[in-house]
C-alpha cells in the first residue's frame, strides 16, 4: 500500500508470458556418448562445453518496459488507434471501446440498443458536481493501467466518477483509502460522501471515529462541520466515549450549537465556552422568562438533538443542575419531568429496597445508562469517583498495577453524600479502554461487555486485568452504569403504551 498521501489500486491484467524458461529444456545439457575410455582431457573439455551450453540456454529476465506502462502511455495518454472519443466538461479523451467495456456504464451503453452503441463520439452529461476533469482523467486512466494513485484530498471526486462509470474495483479502493485516512478534517466529508455513494462500511467507520473522538479530542472545526442529524446520532448513542460526566456532553452541545449559529467565529477551543455562554446570555434577555432558548425560533432546529441528553445524570449534581437552570436552554417541562422521575427512583431505592438491576437489559442499558469517562495521562496509581448522587451507591474506581477495581464505599472512606446501608447492592456496567494515535484512530482497546456486579458494604472487585503489552498512554476509560432497576409499569400504563399509534 502507499503512504497516506496516495493509495494504489492493483488490478490483475492478463499479460503475455515470455518465451522460454526453466522447463523448456534449454537449461540442461546432455553428455555425448563416446566410444572407448575417456581420458582426463576429454572429460574437462566436455564439462566446459556443457557449462557454456547451459549458460547460453539459460533465460535472463531483463525488464525494459512493462506492458501496462506501454499500454497506458501509448493507448491512453497518446490515444493511438482510438476508436471512440469521449467528451465531458469541455475535455476530450481518445479512448478504446474494448477498454471502456470494463466499466459497467459503458458496457451497458455499447451492448444495448442505445444510439451511443454505434457512435464514435459520445458527449457525457455529468450530473454530479463532485466530478471534475481530473477525476475523470484518473478514472479513465485506471482502465489502462495496473496502478492508480489515489490522493486522500481527491478521493471524494474520484469516488463520484467511479460510481458514475460503475468501476467496482476503483470504488472499493476509494472506500479503503477513506477508511485509512479518517481524521478530524476528513471525517464529516467522508461520512456525507459515503452516504451519497452507498459505502456503508465507510459510513460506519466514520461514525465509530466520531463516537470515539467527539468528546476525547474536541475541535472547533469539527463542531462547525457536524450536522444536526449526525450530532443527533452521536448524542443518542451509548457508545459515545464520554470524558468526565453527562454534564460535559451538555457543555459540548452548547458549544456546538453556538458554532452552528455563529459559524464565522474562529477563536480557540479554550475561548469557546466563555464566548458561547456570553452569546446565549445576551439572547436570554430577548425572551420572556418562561421561554427556553430551544423553544425560540433560532433554537427550535436543535431541539431534537438535546432530547437525547440523559438529563437524569446532569440534575443529580447540584452545581450542574444550577448551570442548566441558569442557561435556560432546555424547556422547563423537560426538567420537571426528570426531577419527578429521579425523585421516584430515589424513593424506590430507599423505601422499596431496590438493590439495583437484576439482569442485563441491553435496551435499558443502551438507552438510559450513565455515561462517564476519565483520561489517564501516564501509568501510575489513580483513584476517583464521578460526581453526582447515585442513590447511595458511592462507587470508587481504582487503577493500580494494571488492574481496574470497583469498590462500593460505605464506611471505610469519607463520602460527600449519603450512602446506602443495604447489605448488598447491584450495579450494571460496561467498561471500555482505548488508546488513540494522532489522527484519532484506535490503536488498542478492551471492553468488559455489559455485566452485573453485586457488592456488599465496602467490598471491592477487580473488573479488568490488563496485559501491560496492550497499554499505551494516554489511556482513555469510558463507563456505562445503571444503579437502579427499571421501574415496572402498572397495568394501566402498559395498556396506555400499547394503545399508542
Topology of this structure?
Elements: E1 7-10, H1 40-57, H2 67-77, E2 84-88, E3 91-95, H3 97-100, H4 104-111, E4 121-123, H5 133-141, E5 147-150, H6 155-165, H7 168-180, H8 187-197, H9 200-213, H10 220-225, H11 228-236, H12 246-261, H13 269-284, H14 303-306, H15 318-327, H16 332-351, H17 362-368, E6 370-376, E7 382-384, E8 394-400, E9 403-409, E10 424-436, E11 442-447, E12 451-456, E13 460-465, E14 475-482, H18 491-499
Parallel strand pairs: 2-4
Antiparallel strand pairs: 1-5, 2-3, 6-14, 7-8, 8-9, 9-13, 10-11, 10-12, 10-14
How would you classify the helix and strand content by structural class?
A: alpha+beta
Radius of gyration: 34 Å
Helix content: 25-40%
Question: Beta-strand level of the residues, as a percent range?
Answer: 15-25%
Strand runs, count: 14
Q: Report mean pLDDT, rounded to a whole number.
A: 87
Number of helices: 18
What is the first-to-last residue Cα distance?
A: 53 Å
Spans of at least 5 consecutive residues with low confidence: 1-40
Shape: extended
- Largest sheet data: 5 strands, antiparallel
Biased composition (Gly residues): 17-28
Protein name: BTB domain-containing protein
Biased composition (Acidic residues): 41-50
Subcellular location: Nucleus matrix
